[in-house]
Design a protein that fits this description.
Structural class: alpha+beta
Largest sheet: 4 strands, antiparallel
Distance between the termini: 37 Å
Radius of gyration: 27 Å
Helix content: 40-55%
Strand order of the largest sheet: 7-10-12-11
Shape: globular
Number of helices: 21
């Protein structure tokens, strides 16, 4: 095979490393000549875009070693900073008292565990960045069982079902790729592509009008979430919309990790350190509810420095404040005044997301909220049905979102309802092979279909995939835009 390719294009000249008998790392400039040569001979070059790898923390070992040498006071200050940090950045005045803990802060700076980012007129007040590779702080141990109560009758669901929304995201993204949808210069979907997308989604309004404003609320919501999470990319030349590289990493996570990522997006930044406490409360409650007033009282008693470090370590303690302001005492009333509203707004945000249900002074976990809290989901997972004529029957919740995206790329819809009927096809399979190898698709089918795969189906898929898996160009691209 390599000798045959060398006769078509300078493969050896561009080879950087031989990784095995069938795999080589090559320079990107080989792609054009190889693709043209294969096309002239009537052979395809299958291009598969890989999900980018997680960055490795090269400085992790030195930072971890430095932690072992810290005295308890410095470790306490650093732990507060770790719990408050967002993407490694935190506000110093929330993590420490810039007066009584000044020496500890300066020591952490001198050993390189934190770095100031702002030119400060007041020392130790601004933003700081944590050294890369620091370990996650020890989880806070919450005892919140006393806040558990029987759920009242007026608990109402607010927000979407996240499990259903994730399925819609996968179906919508696959539909965009299959329909060849483009983004216009003014940022809308092109009308012809949107109509094709509407037919694939079985949405009459979108298929007739060609605009998302004519689509059902279900697909309008999916489009907004795809845009907000950056799950699609626009090719700068063709303006075609395609699933972003990060889609696989985001959608293939476990449900608890996916829901936690969404929760951290909707909860305001100042309140995000409360998220572990809310998860702990939902975990303690199970299918019961949480009394918000009792929860506030328990959080007042336990771990007061999760959101704000107290200022004034001797005598009266108070919340962080600028020099000219009147300080708020760091007591129970202060908690209700400063942290109480943040807690309520965080619960409201989780209710809008669909992780909790809400009533005045009470909240409880939804099915998704219980999964997010770390409780096992109840009920068996539905199974797919695959017939010998290549038709798949997909019940609700039968596939995790990434697997649903792969299956949707490899199929065309027969009908959509509560249960979707899809059909595997040659052209659709070629499209799916641009994202995953055939072995990955077969693994999904084997694990999710409630019976053994018909041999005729496996043989057909292998026959269709053979020319597209003979020569595969795998690459990790920089995101568009």
């Amino acid at each position: 095979m390599w000798a045959s390719l060398e006769a078509l294009a300078p493969v050896r000249e561009h080879t950087l490393d031989e990784l095995g008998p069938c795999l080589r790392r090559v320079g990107v400039r080989l792609k054009g000549p190889l693709e043209r040569a294969l096309k002239a001979r009537g052979e395809p070059l299958s291009v598969r875009v890989l999900a980018p790898e997680e960055p490795t923390e090269t400085e992790a070992a030195p930072s971890r070693r430095a932690l072992h040498d810290l005295p308890p006071k410095l470790l306490t200050v650093l732990t507060r900073a770790l719990r408050l940090a967002e993407e490694g950045v935190f506000l110093g005045t929330r993590a420490w008292d810039p007066h009584s803990e000044a020496r500890a802060v300066d020591t952490l700076v001198s050993v390189g565990l934190i770095t100031p980012l702002d030119d400060e007129s007041l020392p130790r007040w601004g933003r700081y960045r944590l050294a890369p590779g620091l370990p996650e702080p020890e989880p806070v141990a919450y005892a919140l069982q006393d806040a558990v109560m029987a759920p009242p009758e007026d608990l109402t669901r607010r927000g979407p079902s996240l499990l259903a929304l994730e399925q819609d995201l996968a179906v919508f993204l696959a539909g965009v790729a299959a329909a060849g949808v483009r983004r216009t210069v003014d940022g809308h979907l092109d009308v012809a592509g949107a109509r094709r997308l509407g037919r694939r989604l079985a949405d009459p309004g979108l298929s007739r009008g060609g605009r998302l404003t004519n689509a059902s609320p279900r697909w309008q919501m999916a489009a907004r979430v795809v845009e907000a999470l950056g799950l699609w990319e626009c090719d700068p030349l063709s303006r075609a919309l395609l699933p972003a590289q990060r889609v696989q990493r985001l959608l293939s996570q476990g449900p608890a990790a996916r829901f936690d990522g969404l929760a951290r997006r909707v909860v305001e930044q100042d309140a995000r350190p409360l998220i572990p406490a809310l998860r702990a409360a939902l975990r303690a409650a199970g299918e019961q509810a949480i009394d918000e007033v009792v929860l506030r009282a328990l959080l007042t008693e336990q771990h007061r420095d999760v959101l704000f470090a107290p200022w004034g370590q001797v005598g009266a303690r108070f919340y962080p404040c600028p020099p000219e302001a009147t300080p708020t005492l760091y007591d129970d009333d202060g908690f209700d005044e400063v942290e109480g509203p943040l807690l309520s707004r965080a619960i409201d945000a989780l209710a809008r997301l669909g992780l909790v249900t809400r009533a005045p002074g009470v909240f409880a976990a939804t099915a998704e909220g219980r999964v997010w809290a770390g409780l096992d989901p109840t009920g068996p997972t539905p199974r797919l049905l695959l017939s010998a004529d290549l038709e798949l029957v997909v019940p609700p919740g039968a596939l995790p979102p990434w697997e649903r995206l792969v299956v949707e790329l490899a199929t065309s819809p027969v009908s959509r309802d509560v249960v979707d009927r899809l059909r595997l096809g040659r052209v659709e399979l070629e499209r799916a092979l641009g994202y995953v190898p055939l072995s990955a698709l077969l693994a999904v089918l084997e694990s999710r279909v409630g019976h053994s795969l018909p041999p005729s189906v496996v043989e057909a898929l292998q026959l269709w995939a053979r020319p597209w898996e003979r020569i595969v160009w795998e690459e990790e691209r920089a995101p568009f835009g």
